[in-house]
Amino acid sequence: MSRTLLITGANRGIGLALATLYKKAGYQIIAVCRSRSDEIAALADQLITNIDFTNAQDINTVYQQIKDQPVDLLINNAGLLQDDSLGSIELDSLRQQMEINAYAPLMFTQAIQTCLKSGSKIVNITSRMGSISDNDSGGRYGYRAAKAALNAFTKSLAIDLKEQGIAVAVVHPGWVKTRMVNFNGLITAEESAKGIAARIAALNLENSGSFWHSNGELLPW
Length: 221
What we know:
Elements: E1 4-8, H1 13-24, E2 28-32, H2 38-43, E3 46-48, H3 56-66, E4 73-76, H4 91-111, E5 121-125, H5 141-161, E6 167-172, H6 189-202, E7 211-213
Parallel strand pairs: 1-2, 1-4, 2-3, 4-5, 5-6, 6-7
C-alpha cells in the first residue's frame, strides 16, 4: 500500500526537492502551493495551487479536496524571509512573516488533522534563526520571531498529538542555495532534502518534539 506525502511550498527549492525524493521512494504526492511550476505539476499526483495559507477559506478549500485521503507525512515547508533590521522594521512585514511562517502551518495542521492517523508524522521546516540561544548576530526580527513561534507551536503539537500516535518535529534545513537567500548557501536543495528525510525517518514518539538540524544535530531552543 502506497504512502502519501502532503507538502506545502513544493513548487521550487527545498519543497520541490523533498517532493522529488519522496516520489522516487514510492509516495503519492499531494502538493499545495501558492504558485504552480512545471516541475511540480509533472511530479505531483495531486496539485492544489493558488492557495494563500494565511486565508482560512483557502485552507478549508485544501481540506475539502483531500479530506477522504489518509496522510502519512505532512511537511509544512512554505515560508517567507524578509531582511528587516533595526531602523527599518515595518509592522506589516512582521505580521506577514508571523502569519506565513508560524500561524499558517499551525492552522493548516489543525485543518487537515482528520487525515492524520496513528503512525503519521508532521515536520515543520523551521530555521536555526528561530533559536533564541543560538542568536549571536541579531537582526531579521520578523523571521526570527516567527520561527521561534513555529518552534513553540510544534512542541505543543508533539505533546497534544502523542496520544494519537502522531510524531512531530521541527527541522532546520541548513543554509541552502535557494531563491529565498539569493542562491547563496553551503548545500543544494537536494542535499538538504536528503538530510531532512533522514531526520523524518528517525522521528518517532520517543523523540517527538525535537528541534533538529538536517545534518542530525539537535539544536537549542
